[in-house]
Amino acid sequence: MESDTDAPAKRALITGVTGQDGSYLAELLLEKGYKVFGLARQESWYRANCASHLTGKIEILFGDVSEGIDLATAVQDAKPDEIYNLASQSRPGESWSRAPETLLVNGLAAVRLFEAVRHNCPLARIYHASSSEMFGQTHVERQDEHTPFNPVNPYAAAKVYAHQMAGIYRDSYNMYIASGILFNHESERRPLHFLPQKVAYGAACQALEITNSPDRNERGRPIVEDGKLALGNLQVSRDWGYAPDFVRAMWMILQQDQPTDFIIGTGLSHTLQDLCEVAYQSVGRDWKKCVFSDPVLVRPLEPRKTVADPTKARDVLGWQPSVGFEEMVGRMVKAQIRRLQHFV
């Protein structure tokens, strides 16, 4: 009789493997003995990315998630037991200027993946990445799995479409599709165009006395210019957690007997001002002297206060975050200091 150790390794396919979540998830699955496949565009894989250090440890399948034939080929080649659909145009603010692309990548691509799995690998379990941005202008103090969606930007609208289609495919075709409605999660691997990473970068520049930063923002200006960091609405409030904790939840969701949706978040809310205070305080600086609100950077519509009610994830999955807000921000600032030291 074969023992469990003789069983073939589980196979997992990750879309969006070059991003923050994809790279952490790939590491987690490798630790658990999976054979990991990542779907990525050639130009994304061959330039530096969050998963570059995994070269030779995971198998890369080249393709574009917006192309149905690429998705079908990847599913056929990987023959996965589990699929993690993390690919996304991931910047809500930028979705205003790239609305058609956002709908294609965040919405229609998910449906094309579901179709590819339905026809080629119907027993595979699918994790679909949904977003707290879907709640938008909510009037509910804490959002759970039953809170209505009210999106306020193209990113969130596309995510709502994909999320609802995931449920439709699950119910109509008896497919295993589970969605994680993830609240904001950050780490040392976040790209600089994400707001919390900009704050960590700004604090690092202050620690190293860099007045004009080598990296530039979306408008082509130094992220830190004349010693100042420009941000949007400082009263924006979010539920921020640590990305490795969140990818652990993704894996736990696919280990359940029945597919269902889960809210994943810390249950705690912090303003952007709080984030600035913690980041700059970690390097002994007063954020008020280093940060200002630029009206140009304020979104046309901003979601209301979003904070997770992760009761279901705690009770059903046994999941809870292991890294708190202050520790996460401190890690991000230290990582930016290490990255910037050679400019000093």
Automatic annotation (TrEMBL):
Instruction: Give the protein's cofactors.
Output: NADP(+)
Pfam family, any one = GDP_Man_Dehyd
Enzyme class name: lyase
Q: What biological process terms from GO does the record include?
A: 'de novo' GDP-L-fucose biosynthetic process
CDD domains the UniProt entry points to:
GDP_MD_SDR_e (cd05260)
Keyword annotations for this protein?
Lyase, Nodulation
Query: Could you say which EC number(s) this protein's record lists?
Result: 4.2.1.47
NAD(P)-binding domain spans which residues?
13-332
GO MF assignments: GDP-mannose 4,6-dehydratase activity
Q: Which reaction equation describes what this protein catalyses?
A: GDP-alpha-D-mannose = GDP-4-dehydro-alpha-D-rhamnose + H2O
Q: What does this protein do?
A: Catalyzes the conversion of GDP-D-mannose to GDP-4-dehydro-6-deoxy-D-mannose.
Which family does the similarity line name? Belongs to the NAD(P)-dependent epimerase/dehydratase family. GDP-mannose 4,6-dehydratase subfamily.
Quote the protein name from its UniProt record: GDP-mannose 4,6-dehydratase
